[in-house]
Amino acid sequence: MPNDIPEPQAVYTPITRSAIFIVATLASGDESAAIVRAWCADVAALVRAVGKRVPSGNLSCVVGFASDAWDTLFGTPRPAELHPFREFGPAGRRAIATPGDILLHIRADQMDLCFELATQLVGRLGGAVQVVDEVHGFRYFDMRSMVGFVDGTENPTGREAADFTMVGAEDPEFAAGSYVLVQKYLHDMQGWNALSVETQERIIGRTKLSDIELDEAVKPTSSHSSLTTLTDENGDEVKILRDNMPFGRPGSGEFGTFFIGYARSPAPIEQMLENMFVGRPPGNYDRLLDFSRAATGGLFFVPSATLLEALAERDPQASNDVVAEPSALPASAEPHYDGSLSIGSLKGTSQYE
Ligand code: HEM
């Protein structure tokens, strides 16, 4: 029965030219929680209404909830691996956690579409939330990040993207959901641009102009590409799906990258953060961080679109008393949600071993 298969939110979408990232905290009180829950049922209709006006604009929105907010808003059952953002790294080079209960990731080919949808979504939430961070990102030349290198090349595509980003049989109640980790980075562009192109290439692990991976013989183990490449116990690569966006205000000296990574478990993204900030082995850290500071950090769960709508009806008081009975996935969904990622056995996973 295909109707039993939950529909994911728009996690995997075509590349767009613009994005707005909004992180908000939940106001206290039952009334605010009730407003946010009711809003969950309106999101899809608002995306349809705004998107319809420019059919070629590829407008989409992904909504995620942080760990404490999930408990307040929806009680139990809760996503198996949802927890507060874990910090990594020493003082001065640290992936920090910052406040944030709700994430909106709005994407389109035109900023006016993103802007209108953000206005509608935030407007409807009113005083039930407080926006604590809002970043308007743009696509920079040929998919280049703020630091001048093409970004997103090694992203999984097609079926692989779905398999790496969607929760499956490992947590059937939350099938077709995803975990998403965000960080707002600010760059020291003067320092970065003072480096030779060859030095920059060794830091990223790819060539700058042609975006080709450096040969293993010359690619340092501290390169960004090396430290973010993970394999499971079978030697198979474990990927995440990224859609980073440059942003900034040249007049104020602000040059940034909004990092956003989706996966079917927080574990691989956290492992990458540990490798980058602490180092693999410790001390062999990502030199990109000598020129980039993480100013924010948040981890969120993205329910399937089907569940997002249903969450509007949740009564957290009642559900907190209920022990959830996981429903079996339909057989037709199983090859897709095979739950075979072996996240616990990522190579070098000091925190999971
Ligand atoms: C300062 C912010 C960041 C910048 C400017 C940046 C930029 C880049 C660039 C230019 C590449 C090479 C092209 C590509 O395959 O996409 C890359 C690769 C990658 N980055 Fe980042 N990145 C940043 C932060 C992060 C973070 C925080 C993570 C994970 C937690 C991450 C994970 C990855 C992964 C998985 C790859 C692909 C590696 C491979 O398979 O070769 N990046 N990044």
Automatic annotation (TrEMBL):
Alphabetized Pfam families for the sequence: Dyp_perox_C, Dyp_perox_N
Start and end residues of each Dyp-type peroxidase N-terminal domain: 9-139
Oxidoreductase listed as a keyword: yes
InterPro entries: Dimeric_a/b-barrel, Dyp_perox_C, Dyp_perox_N, Dyp_peroxidase
GO molecular function: peroxidase activity
Region (Disordered): 316-353
Ranges where the Dyp-type peroxidase C-terminal domain occurs: 143-305
Keywords in alphabetical order: Iron, Metal-binding, Oxidoreductase, Peroxidase
Cofactor: heme b
Record's keyword annotation contains Repeat: no
Ranges of compositional bias, category Low complexity: 324-334
The family this protein is said to belong to: Belongs to the DyP-type peroxidase family.
NCBIfam families assigned: Dyp_perox_fam
Protein name: Dyp-type peroxidase
